[in-house]
Specification:
Helix content: 25-40%
Radius of gyration: 19 Å
Largest sheet: 2 strands, antiparallel
Number of strands: 2
Length: 150
């Protein structure tokens, strides 16, 4: 990510700082492309403690950090209000209950109401779940957005 792109997205990075695991390991070979490091640049200097990745952990310096989040926007779905429109009622019930069981009621309704974006991995899970329950049509989301996978 270029310095200009980082500056254009400064507001998004600042918004993540209070509740995101940050990284301050400048020696990591992946740091310039990692969302955790980019957000860490906007951590407040007047705060004495911050939740961050341990810089002394062996994986942080060799480029195999499992906390790495690639700084590339992807196509995220928004909302499930129209997801069940064409499904038989019994199938809708089974899929909805499976999703609530997997993600919990609160998070499910955040996805359903569009307050939380649906990442590509979850979109693939939704398709697999629908196929497992017998629904073969493509899922219908309320909209699409390009965003980072925080």
């Amino acid at each position: 990510m270029t310095e200009k792109q980082i500056q254009q997205n400064e507001t998004a990075f600042r918004a993540q700082v209070p509740h995101y695991l940050l990284c301050f390991v400048d020696s990591c070979p992946l740091h310039r492309q990692c969302l955790r490091w980019l957000a860490g640049r906007y951590a407040p200097t007047d705060q004495q403690s911050i939740v961050s990745i341990n810089p002394r952990h062996p994986q942080t310096a060799d480029g195999s950090c499992h906390h790495y989040r690639k700084a590339v926007k992807c196509k995220m779905a928004r909302g499930l209000k129209h997801f069940y429109n064409d499904m038989p009622r019994r199938m809708e019930h089974d899929i909805k209950n499976a999703l609530i069981g997997r993600y919990g009621r609160t998070i499910y309704y955040q996805y359903h109401n569009g307050r939380r974006l649906i990442p590509p991995a979850m979109q693939a899970d939704l398709v697999a779940l629908c196929r497992h329950c017998g629904w073969t049509a493509e899922p219908r989301y309320d909209g699409w957005e390009d965003d980072w996978q925080w």
